[in-house]
Amino acid sequence: VVRPRDVSEQLVVAPWGTDLLELDVREGVLELTRETFTGDVRWRVEVGDRLPSDGEPVELRVEGDRALVAVAGTELAVDGRGALAHERAPTAGTGLPLRADDGSVPGLVVTVTDVGLELWAATTTPRVLPLDGELPAEAYVLDGALVLARDAAVEAISVRDGVLRWRVEVSRGVLVGTDGRHVLVLDRTVPYRELCAVDLATGREVWRLALDGISAWPRALGGMLLVHSGDKLSRWVP
Question: Can you tell me whether residue 230 is helix, strand or coil?
Answer without folding.
Answer: coil
